[in-house]
Amino acid sequence: MTFQVKTRARSDAVDVTGSVRDAVRASGVQSGICVVYVPHTTAGITINEGADPNVMKDILDTLERLVPWQGGYRHMEGNAAAHVKTSIIGSSVQVVVERGELVLGTWQRIFLCEFDGPRTRRVLVKVLGEK
């Protein structure tokens, strides 16, 4: 399954947990693994706390301090910082599926992390396992 996410800013974190849950339920898989993948070089995917929105703001702010937009990079397109941040976060996550549901911790959510927006991004979900 593929769905799209519209980001709102150059750096953004969008909770996609609901859409991933929908994909798992639609797959009919009862026990297995769910792979969530973002096919972009300037956007990533991560799992972290979703109860307090300041957690993801802190993560984005920390990445900005570690990898500032203006950093004397050699990449000619002007978005080298976005590429570096994506490499730090990663382009996929895997989540266990049991009884047809994602197995996430109490506060865990799945986030698309935008580093070169705003844009419309694709998220691919593949659910493997037993029905």
Fold and architecture overview:
This protein has 131 residues and is α+β, with helices and mostly antiparallel strands. The chain has one domain: Jelly Rolls (Sandwich). The chain has helices at 17-27, 53-66, 80-89; strands at 2-6, 12-15, 31-37, 43-49, 92-98, 101-102, 108-114, 120-130. Pfam families: YjbQ. It comes from Thermodesulforhabdus norvegica. This is Secondary thiamine-phosphate synthase enzyme. Belongs to the UPF0047 family.
CATH H-tier superfamily: YjbQ-like
What characteristic shape results from the CA principal axes?
elongated
- Please write the CATH class name: Mainly Beta
What letter string, H or E per element, gives the SSE order? EEHEEHHEEEE
Low-confidence stretches: none
Helix content: 25-40%
Number of distinct helices? 3
Number of domains: 1
What percentage of the residues does DSSP assign to strands (E)? Answer: 35-45%
Q: Biggest sheet: strands side by side, in what order?
A: 1-8-3-5-6
> Total strand count, please?
8
Main beta sheet? 5 strands, antiparallel
SSE layout and pairings?
Layout (H helix, E strand, L loop, with lengths): L1 E5 L5 E4 L1 H11 L3 E7 L5 E7 L3 H14 L13 H10 L2 E7 L2 E2 L5 E7 L5 E11 L1
Antiparallel strand pairs: 1-8, 2-7, 3-5, 3-8, 4-7, 5-6
